[in-house]
Design a protein that fits this description.
The chain has 15 helices and 14 strands. It has 443 residues and is α/β, with parallel strands linked by helices. The strands form 2 sheets. It has an 8-stranded mixed beta sheet with strand order 13-12-11-7-10-9-8-14. The chain has a 6-stranded parallel beta sheet with strand order 3-2-1-4-5-6, sandwiched between helices. Bound molecules: nicotinamide-adenine-dinucleotide.
């Protein structure tokens, strides 16, 4: 929780900002949350806003301020591209709304710190979307760690072995970019697993060594494969293996080992062994720790198709319920800004180590290893630019240069085409100065 919530709310009105792939699960799951309802949706693309609004029978907007003027909103769901989260979250805070923000919190330390400051100031709630923490097997793991069943936790590992097609990366301008996706398989997909491993171990990550690669995709600036070794403050060691280059996907496991037990799960619990055997252990192993409602729907998996989120309804609904209940009761929520920030900082540490050829990187980090989005408040990007840019990975610098020159080329061509028009020629005859001015105006 970032603050006290206003008391006495009966039903919270939620608005979704960003009507793309993930907004559908927000819309559907909000319908299953006690004390909350979807009241409006908004997207800068009119057709997207309309489609989602009509699907859930709520008003839809292309102007977020107009939405707030016309519909009483309590909670804003941020479902826009990752590097844009700060913009929407800070706008929600400025309007004294609660905010439920998709993962990752944002893609740089600088943007995340601005979000944190905004909610500290607004006194409204911020909730981060790491719904995997609400997965029943994950909850059983956390309980076992906290009750000491693993003894001293010695190692933990997370594997997010997924497949994303080239078409997936080309399905949105923001995908596979540093500025808006914040990275590749780690920042977008494995971020859930990075969060799970740090949450389960329950101790800050102190240092990281890592390698990343772009091995099975093209025309993206980011990694599709990454391996990392973590050292936790409590002495435990961790391993992260994330990829979107493992056809056909999906496979995601989390394993925790200690001197009194070890357990792992891959959707459901597949290993659950402790020195202090307990009566419920047998049932946990038989059911995989998954209550019937949380079993994946036939063929539904996010490992190979982000739209097929059927199996995730239970987790999302529980995450929303927890957030809604906390606001209604004025009690702390599980995933405030500090919690949501942790996985992103670890991933930025992984990128920094990979950039330095696997050198050890210590946390906390002082600055982001990726570009600060230009949408940060005026002057902010300029202020940190000098400090940030020298640390950019080589691939990122090359990509930015190539893209900038491609854009320049395209602008040059269109300006040339325009200047060959009759109107421009006529003006040029009259006065070369006014022709130049006219050309500039059209750009
Ligand atoms: N929790 C999960 O498991 C999960 C799964 C998928 C995506 N996500 C996250 O959700 C976010 C969105 O992902 P997606 O796959 O739905 O992307 P998407 O591209 O399908 O949708 C994003 C939408 O945001 C809109 N948009 C962009 N800028 C906007 C602005 N300033 N104001 C309003 N709308 C704007 C776009 O028009 C688009 O419709 C990302 O941060 C992603 O990491 C989370």
């Amino acid at each position: 929780m970032d603050s006290q919530a206003p008391k006495g709310l009966v039903v919270l009105n939620h608005a979704i900002v960003g009507c793309g792939v993930i907004s559908n699960i927000h819309g559907t799951c909000l319908g299953m949350v006690r004390g909350s309802r979807l009241a409006a949706v908004m997207d800068i693309v009119p057709e997207k806003a309309k489609a989602l609004g009509e699907k859930y029978n709520v008003p839809y907007f292309t102007d977020r301020d107009q939405m707030l003027r016309e519909v009483p909103i309590d909670v804003v769901h941020v479902c826009t591209p990752s590097g844009n989260h700060h913009e929407i979250a800070m706008w929600a805070a400025a309007n004294r709304k609660h905010c439920f923000c998709e993962k990752p919190m944002d893609v740089t330390l600088e943007a995340m710190d601005l979000i944190t400051a905004a909610f500290k100031k607004s006194g409204t709630y911020y909730g981060g979307c790491f719904m995997n923490r609400f997965n029943p097997p994950a909850q059983l793991f956390k309980k076992a760690v906290e009750s000491g069943r693993f003894g001293r936790v010695t190692t933990a590992s997370a594997q997010c072995i997924w497949w994303r097609t080239q078409e997936y990366y080309e399905s949105g301008d923001w995908r596979g970019t540093w500025e808006l996706d914040g990275g590749g398989c780690l920042m977008n997909q494995a971020v859930h697993y990075v969060d799970l491993i740090q949450w389960l171990v329950g101790s800050p990550v102190k240092s990281i060594r890592a390698y990343t690669g772009l091995l099975a995709h093209e025309r993206i600036a980011v990694e599709d494969t990454a391996v990392a070794i973590l050292k936790f403050a409590n002495g435990a060691l961790g391993v992260i293996h994330g990829t979107t280059a493992a056809y056909p996907g999906p496979h995601g496991t989390v394993e925790v080992c200690g001197d009194k037990g070890n357990a792992s799960y891959d959707g459901k619990i597949i290993r659950w062994k402790f020195a202090d055997e307990q009566a419920e252990d047998k049932t946990i192993l038989e059911t995989g720790g998954v209550p019937p409602a949380a079993k994946p729907a036939d063929g539904a998996t996010t490992g190979s198709d982000p739209a097929a989120l059927g199996a995730y309804h239970v987790m999302f609904t529980r995450a929303f319920q927890e957030f809604s209940d906390a606001i209604q009761s004025g009690t702390p929520n599980a995933l405030g800004t500090a919690e949501h920030r942790k996985a992103v900082e670890i991933i930025l540490g992984i990128y920094e180590s990979a950039r330095r050829g696997g050198e050890e990187v210590r946390l906390p980090l002082k600055k982001s290893a990726i570009p600060v989005p230009m949408s940060l408040p005026a002057g902010y990007a300029e202020k940190v630019k000098g400090a940030i840019h020298p640390t950019l990975p080589e691939a990122m610098v090359t990509f930015r240069k190539k893209r900038a020159s491609a854009k320049k080329g395209a602008r040059g061509k269109s300006a040339k085409a325009k200047s060959s028009g009759k109107a421009a020629k006529a003006t040029a005859k009259k006065s070369p100065k006014s022709a130049r001015k006219a050309k500039r105006g059209r750009k």
